[in-house]
Amino acid sequence: MLHPRIEPLTLGMYDTWISSEALHHWTKSLLSEVGKKLPFILVINLQVPAKPNYSLVLYYAADRPIKKDSLLSKFVDGSDVFRDSRFKLIPSIVEGYWMVKRAVGTKACLLGKVVTCKYFRQDNFLEIDVDIGSSSVARSVIGLVLGYVTSLVVDLAILIEAKEETELPEYILGTVRLNRLKPESAVPLEV
């Protein structure tokens, strides 16, 4: 049984883009009629530093409105400082080269504490742009991952860290499995 405060999001789709510059505030050009009908959409734009730049954009949707007093509501409508202290990602290399598995690990990471995250809130959207290149360690790890990406199966779990007893238990907002991505299939985009 789900915890009463749990509001899991469903991965609707993901895109891979390639561009000369990093994509920022992607949802401003995405507001379709279909998107406006959903109660809430969380867009996570993982900006991968490379020449050219890649973006892996994940679109998670809620099938019902967010409860006002929930941790998700506090996160969505909170300050960037609050969001940075709570936005967590758990990676797992399911299949792949042992050195990549070791470099990536499986520990939860508060993304806002290690890389630059920019948040854009409008209407029923929250977009989080995650600049992986803003950390030399993250840039180094992603450089290794890119060298093997066509042979990797990667699971990512996204959650909001609970810090108060009333916010427990923590729960996963959404997940995605990336199966042997092909960088050449990324859609070119002019920024």
From TrEMBL:
<dbReference type="Pfam" id="PF07059">
    <property type="entry name" value="EDR2_C"/>
</dbReference>
<feature type="domain" description="Protein ENHANCED DISEASE RESISTANCE 2 C-terminal">
    <location>
        <begin position="32"/>
        <end position="181"/>
    </location>
</feature>
<dbReference type="InterPro" id="IPR009769">
    <property type="entry name" value="EDR2_C"/>
</dbReference>
<protein>
    <recommendedName>
        <fullName>Protein ENHANCED DISEASE RESISTANCE 2 C-terminal domain-containing protein</fullName>
    </recommendedName>
</protein>
<dbReference type="InterPro" id="IPR045096">
    <property type="entry name" value="EDR2-like"/>
</dbReference>
